[in-house]
């Protein structure tokens, strides 16, 4: 198993033993998580791909890996094209590919704990047209050949106190009970890890960079709940916090409990609950309501305590980033700094706050050509030296008990080219267009996504990802259902109206393959806007992230007066928020970075 080719061969041998003619390998876990624990990193183990979204299909004579536009370059660097075909999504779905490549009459396996029922129905239909069968496996064949597969985390849960959550778990469960009553339902299954963490006001460390614990829950119409989690993970503090209304069961008891809901009206989310959950409910005779998890929207609309906590976290995190940017400006032109050492130095600045819980994702520390890979992950093997003449892009964030941060900045090492300045300024114009957008209630993020792209479209350019994603409150750095993305871009999806209280990122970019990448990202809060004479309620954004935007990359002549005014106002606020946290030398540096754009 020393090479990825060996692993692919071993899986094919296992498929023969299991009488399967193929197998589908998604990058997720039993909770449909975006980020997963080491035990669930099956796609990475099999292929070498280190991105956060992708899938693969293995057939006897062919294998394909499916990634979206964020990973076009990365997948080719990390996955051997001699053994794997690169397939772009959403242009080609796994079901489409299987319908064309699956052997006539073959049995294609899938793990029902790793796919939604909707995916199963789509794939089964495509295979049926080929005379092939989609077969659920009782055990995942990759696990049979992955000898050193990590064990799931045994870390204990932690209480997220009411002073940080802003609402008690009992009150949240009461809201869920009211939701069930409106639908004449007896119970709802919660399987998304961040939904469980939010509803029960607990956090964990079972998934890297996301403070959640491996668990399932069933919340009942009387406000009581059954929580399925390894009992050794529940200390006395958590047990007292949950109280008698929450019954603790071993995680292995979850599937049998589903089968025991005979005759009950049970809600489950078709996008977040895996096919195996629906199969168990059906087999047990429950009446299933396929509806969205009631926590999803409630969690997305932050309360006043969560908003205040987030602002505190942002101010703290912004000071750490400013210190890093000052360090980078001085040290990178001297040589000797690498992508990896820069990422480590930024983490050290965050750790110096004394309250950092974790990073919110693997830092994207990218110079030159690696900056053109939107979701680049630096490793010891890929880490490049940072050299003069390049752009350095850093996309990073921290997890603090009061908030989750995510910010991207770009700095030049040496003198930037005119092309770099032009593209950076156009990305900035798009960023300002989102930051200043005003729109009627009911507007979706997809409707305003083009605001950010227009300055690039005007010169025939674009970027291959959505403009913004939702962000949790000391939870997942990528949270739904809110987003700023048209359906034809990665990150797009079903239209969801933006609502006051939602956190989102504002992150347009530009990527020139093989040369450089640019992205400017702040987090924003959806707020109500008082517009004189408005004929309907209006919304807009309040910017939450404060860090200097590199002045030497801006071409002032491309900015309108309104855009210059926004930039100067933003930088004045950066000084106001960060200045008191910095040393005298650091403040002098920041003042220079935040001068009005027309000042020399």
Write the layout of secondary structure elements.
Layout: H1 4-17, E1 22-26, H2 42-47, E2 55-58, E3 63-67, H3 72-78, E4 85-88, H4 94-101, E5 107-110, H5 117-128, E6 133-136, H6 141-145, E7 158-159, H7 162-165, H8 169-182, E8 187-190, H9 193-200, E9 202-203, E10 216-220, E11 225-228, H10 236-242, E12 246-249, H11 254-259, E13 265-268, H12 275-284, E14 287-290, H13 295-300, H14 304-331, H15 339-351, E15 358-359, E16 364-367, E17 390-396, E18 398-400, E19 403-404, E20 407-413, H16 418-435, E21 438-440, H17 445-457, E22 468-470, E23 479-484, E24 503-506, E25 509-512, E26 516-519, E27 522-529, E28 538-543, H18 561-578, H19 584-593
Parallel strand pairs: 1-5, 3-4, 5-6, 8-13, 11-12, 13-14
Antiparallel strand pairs: 1-2, 2-3, 7-9, 8-10, 10-11, 15-18, 16-17, 17-20, 18-19, 21-28, 22-23, 24-27, 25-26, 27-28
Describe the structure.
It is a single chain. This protein is of the alpha+beta class and 600 residues long. The chain has 3 domains: 4-145, Creatinase/prolidase N-terminal domain (Creatine Amidinohydrolase, Chain A, domain 1), CATH 3.40.350; 158-298, 3-Layer(aba) Sandwich (Creatine Amidinohydrolase, Chain A, domain 1); 301-588, Creatinase/methionine aminopeptidase superfamily (Creatine Amidinohydrolase, Alpha-Beta Complex). It is 34% helix and 20% strand. It has 19 helices and 28 strands. The strands form 8 sheets. It has a 6-stranded mixed β-sheet. A 6-stranded mixed β-sheet has the order 12-11-10-8-13-14, sandwiched between helices. A 4-stranded antiparallel β-sheet has the order 21-28-27-24. Helix 4 packs parallel to helix 5, helix 14 packs across helix 15 (339-351) and helix 16 runs antiparallel to helix 17 (445-457). The longest helix is centred in the middle third of the chain and has 28 residues, at 304-331. The radius of gyration is 25 Å and the shape is globular. The N and C termini lie far apart (60 Å). The relative contact order is 0.09.
